[in-house]
Structure formats: C-alpha cells, structure tokens
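Protein details
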Amino acid sequence: MFVKKEQLHIEFQKIDWEDKGGGVLRKVMAYGDQLMAVYAEFKLGSVGALHHHPHLQITYLEKGSLTVHIGAESKVLGAGDFYYIPANVVHGVEAHQDSILIDFFTPMREDFIPAT
C-alpha cells in the first residue's frame, strides 16, 4: 500500500517499500501539498548520488553513520544528528554503516508519488 495524500494515520508496516537500488529502500510515510516525510534505509556502502531539487530538506539520522555532502561541505554524521539542505543545493550521502534516515521536504516531492 502507498500512503494517500493527507492520510491522517499511517502504520509503518502497512506501507510498501520502494527499492531504489544499490542498497537504498524508501517509504513515503506522510504528505500534503506543503510537507512530506520519507523513511529511508541505506545499507553499508550504499550511495545517495549527488543531486539537487527545489525543495527545502531536513533529515534526521536515526541510526548509522554517513558522509553527508552539501554544496562544497562534507561531514561525517551519526545517529541522532540532523542536516539541512537549502533549495537547489547539490547534495548526497555515503553510508559507512547500515543507516536509517527520516527526510522532511517542503513543499512535498511530487516526483516521489507513483503515477496512478
């Protein structure tokens, strides 16, 4: 099952995984027009390729360790850390351990919603 727009209650186990390849799995957990929450798992050695988008992003690193690249800066972050990505800034990650990320986007990422 894929979460519906503005769904009020979301049970983690009922949301289907999206396999993004290369050891990256994702679940879109909640969204409306102005906000989206995404749960992602990065296996040891997986890479979130450098990219950019017009959305503001805040990410909470729940578990693991990553090198986080944002613009010209790179930093190793661990469980409990957060990072902020301004709109249109190139960014990506490299997983040093199995890691769990919780991303928040504003506005929501229309490109994360499957075509119906």
Remarks:
- Residues 25-109 form a domain with the Jelly Rolls fold (CATH 2.60.120.10).
- Strands lie at 18-21, 24-32, 35-42, 47-51, 56-63, 65-70, 73-78, 82-85, 91-95, 99-106.
- DSSP finds no helices and ten strands in the chain.
- The chain has one domain: 25-109.
